[in-house]
Amino acid sequence: MRVPAHVVVDWGTSSFRLWTLDADGHVLAERRSAQGLAASAAEGFEMVLESHLAALGVPAGVPAMMCGMVGSRSGWKEAAYLDAPVRLDRLAELATAVPAARRKVAILPGIAQRRRRHPDVMRGEETQMLALSREGREAGHRDRKGFDGLACLPGTHSKWVRLEDGAVERFSTFMTGELFQLLRTGSVIAPAVEGAPPVDPAAPAFARGVADALEAPETVGNRLFELRAGWLLADVPVEEAQARLSGLLIGMEIAGARQRLGRLDGTVLIASGAAAALYRRAFAVAEIADVARRDAETCVREGLHEAARIAFAPAGGGVR
Amino acid sequence: MRVPAHVVVDWGTSSFRLWTLDADGHVLAERRSAQGLAASAAEGFEMVLESHLAALGVPAGVPAMMCGMVGSRSGWKEAAYLDAPVRLDRLAELATAVPAARRKVAILPGIAQRRRRHPDVMRGEETQMLALSREGREAGHRDRKGFDGLACLPGTHSKWVRLEDGAVERFSTFMTGELFQLLRTGSVIAPAVEGAPPVDPAAPAFARGVADALEAPETVGNRLFELRAGWLLADVPVEEAQARLSGLLIGMEIAGARQRLGRLDGTVLIASGAAAALYRRAFAVAEIADVARRDAETCVREGLHEAARIAFAPAGGGVR
Q1: Which residues numbered 226-255 in A keep a CB inside 8 Å of some CB on B?
Q2: What residues does each domain of chain B span?
Q3: Which residue from A292, B94, B132, B141 has the highest number of Cβ atoms inside 10 Å of its Cβ?
Q4: What gap in Å lies between CA A127 and CA A238, rounded to an integer?
């Protein structure tokens, strides 16, 4: 097996994804598991990392670059937030070294927005935007140092980010995914959606939910209860109710992003799989023009590679 | 002890309240417990009721009128919903008899709104409005048969009801209280509000939350996450965060009620205790004029008395 240039790891609350990369960022091997934060804290972060690397036969001389909740206060080693506005290339320069690890291990910082009225935080998404920023630079516009525009990163806590010239200017997090899970499993809506398969992005009930929330977001608290009443009174199918629930929450998020960040045309949607398809459909309902899409997983890997390239460069950079 | 004319019971998901009343509705005695639906189903509904009545020495000849979730599918005996629009005096006429009970026991029906786009249900609140309706009639306007106007009944599932001439025309339920509990205990906001005392209606953070949600209800999903970020970044006190959480959700409810039901001036707020004070403050922030207040508990007791008076009248009425 070829010895990789570095290892990159996206280590979140509930998942662990590792890639070994060559110097150009090509994937040599990968590992995935459900060893998120809680599981890994119990087992030992280094033990989890090294067991995957042993399985791949990666020697101790190969350094590892990480991002995600592994750098939170309850992770392996806290990587303090950088304050927005902040240039994304600062991420790599300010990566935090994990002391006394068997190999060189660094964790990328998250970003904090310390505005009094709109405090916000991200940890992991900044790395995906590092890939976007690099892409802007490589596009070769002489007058541009990095990506300009809006990015939407759907998830448990969806992020909408305003990027200017390769820097994160400001951002807004929406609790969309978490609300969906809370309502789907722990509320009076639960029986109305119980056993429903994943939401079909083509479902008319999804699009109607998006449209209704965009038109009158203030009624969402009422429309949620109507899902229960529809189940009680009219036996609305669970897949229809769940598609509507998802549409209402995503529609409200888009309405909120518009209020916070202005026109959403040209937004880059950084998402994978089911979320990508749902948000594309929702963006169409909201008549957001010129949407581009990037695969979330590719972005996190490319962002980590970019950071590793800078931080582990023989000539300098280094890791604080 | 005087023998009561009848017994009335408000039997909900998580509480049991019983009063013995004379023929004019004056309270002779009362009993309260946490024997809600689940607890009572296990113990046996009749057993729960009779143990309280035995403690008060109420003979088997005294009939009992009930309302609330005791009449749901998972209650003692299902009392089928009446369809809105419906006159409130029909409630008593269509009370459902519990068969084979030791004494005459009747349960008031809830109300269903079977509109295709806005299905909704209530069970318990209709009885409080029966009291309001009776009050309108007693006010002695010759040209009025009952209360006209809007009623707001805060709770786990807050109801906003349009009443016309003693009939429930239409209503909208908001999941405000349930969302508050879900977010307070089971979400990433939980640590930001953990251990906070009940919300102080005079807290500036509560009023600001109401105002912010009224101004831009579509941003509530973002403002919720800001509560967590404020805790992480700025150590916002838990009582301030919880007051803001409550304000945001109640503000969004009021914005939604306005969208659904139009001008809210003159709304009768049917509430007790902490909810009454919070909603009065929120109504003031929303500049709702001419708000009247009725005590929720008094209303349910008076509504049940009115129903008992009609249904158990020696001369007729009767119970189906």
Answers
A1: 226, 228-230, 232-234, 249, 252-253, 255
A2: 6-124+300-311, 176-289
A3: B132
A4: 37
pLDDT band at B293; cut points 50, 70, 90 = very high
When pLDDT is cut at 50, 70 and 90, the band that residue A38 belongs to is confident
The pLDDT confidence band at residue B105, using thresholds 50, 70 and 90, is very high
* Option in A176, A179, A218 nearest B217 (CB): A218
B138 confidence band (pLDDT: 50, 70, 90): low
pLDDT confidence tier of residue A319, bands split at 50, 70 and 90? low
The answer to whether A219 contacts chain B (CB < 8 Å) is yes
Chain A contact present for B208, CB below 8 A: no
3-state secondary structure of A293: strand
ipTM over cut 0.85: yes
Of B118, B218, B258, the CB nearest to A217: B218
What CATH topology corresponds to A6-141+298-311? Nucleotidyltransferase; domain 5 (3.30.420)
Q: How far is CA A10 from the centre of its chain?
A: 10
* Whole-number pLDDT of residue B319: 55
**Would the CB atoms of A114 and B233 count as touching at under 8 Å?**
yes
Same fold, B6-124+300-311 and B176-289: yes
Q: How far is CA B176 from the centre of its chain?
A: 13
What pTM was computed for the model?
Answer: 0.93
- B/e letters for A131-140, b = 16+ CB within 10 Å, e = fewer, are bbbbbbbeee
CATH number corresponding to B176-289: 3.30.420.310
Tally A–B CB contacts below 8 A: 134
Q: Contact B176/B209 with Cβ under 8 angstroms?
A: no
- Write down the residue that tokens 């990666």 correspond to: A58
Question: Which residues of chain A does B121 touch, with a Cβ-Cβ cutoff of 8 Å?
Answer: 228-229, 232-233
Q: What DSSP letter does each residue of A213-234 carry, written as one string?
A: HHH-GGGHHHHHHHHHHHHHHH
CATH (residue range B6-124+300-311):
3.30.420.300
Our CA-based measurement puts residue B267 at a distance from the nearest CA of chain A, in whole angstroms, of 18
Length of chain B: 320
E strands, chain A, are: 6-11, 16-21, 27-33, 64-67, 82-83, 86-87, 96-97, 105-107, 111-114, 119-122, 149-153, 158-164, 167-174, 268-270, 292-294
Q: Rounded CA gap, A49 and A101, in Å?
A: 11
DSSP assigned state of A73: T
Across chain A, mean pLDDT equals 93
* pLDDT at B137 (0 to 100): 60
Closest in B176, B182, B232 to A221, CB measured: B176
The Cα B297–Cα B270 span in angstroms is 9
Q: What is the mean pLDDT of chain B?
A: 93
pLDDT, tens digit (0-9, with 9 covering 90-100), for B108-123? 999 999 988 999 999 9
pLDDT value of residue B314: 72
